[in-house]
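Title: Comparing notes on inverse folding

I've been comparing how different people in this forum approach sequence design from structure. To keep things fair, I'm posting one structure and asking everyone to reply with a full sequence. Here's the target:
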């Protein structure tokens, strides 16, 4: 039986600086896959919900190679909705890239290549999607991975702190809390972190500081 070509639907591939997490500021190739199963109220990549261009897996790798960076972030949308995403991740690892996956916490990550650094964005109540968090994913997170909460208000922050304590997230991996851009002042969130007694990292979206007038490809 003839094997069908491995294709992915791609919104964009570009080179920039990593804007969030422990690798903020480092050069990175971004592969943004199309499609998402969530509709967060403050989503800043709604343009990736639909559309995109179908590309063969090999063509995606070639585009990444041309960007000449040591690391690659596969993101979305929600990249794990596409059946060949795990294969893309494994191929990137085979090519020697530091391979990162940004996932929204609602899809099973157990099949992801263990060489991949998983950055899991757990959804807070203000997103409207907190019921979609798949908490069994926490058991798959290792010390090389990262967990992120996007915070819109103090209710979100208290909720995130409860989850950090309940699931002992700080013992598993670095935990970042980031303010919803334009809605919560970073200094206010910083004060909440200092008052929480938890070892949380304040995350700011570097790309929105550097390129505030660009809404994609940064």
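Reply #1:
Here's my take.
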């Amino acid at each position: 039986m003839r094997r069908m070509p491995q294709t992915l639907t791609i919104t964009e591939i570009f080179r920039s600086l990593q804007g969030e997490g422990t690798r903020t500021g480092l050069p990175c190739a971004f592969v943004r896959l199309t499609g998402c199963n969530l509709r967060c109220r403050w989503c800043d990549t709604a343009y990736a919900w639909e559309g995109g261009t179908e590309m063969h897996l090999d063509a995606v790798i070639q585009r990444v190679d041309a960007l000449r960076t040591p690391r690659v972030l596969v993101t979305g949308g929600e990249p794990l909705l596409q059946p060949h995403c795990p294969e893309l991740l494994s191929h990137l690892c085979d090519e020697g890239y530091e391979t990162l996956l940004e996932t929204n916490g609602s899809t099973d990550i157990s099949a992801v290549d263990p060489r991949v650094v998983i950055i899991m964005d757990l959804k807070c109540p203000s997103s409207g999607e907190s019921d979609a968090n798949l908490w069994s994913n926490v058991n798959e997170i290792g010390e090389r991975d990262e967990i992120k909460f996007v915070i819109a208000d103090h209710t979100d922050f208290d909720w995130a702190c409860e989850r950090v304590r309940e699931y002992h997230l700080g013992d598993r991996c670095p935990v970042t809390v980031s303010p919803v851009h334009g809605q919560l002042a970073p200094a206010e969130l910083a004060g909440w972190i200092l008052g929480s007694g938890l070892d949380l990292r304040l995350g700011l979206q570097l790309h929105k500081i550097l390129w505030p007038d660009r809404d994609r490809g940064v």
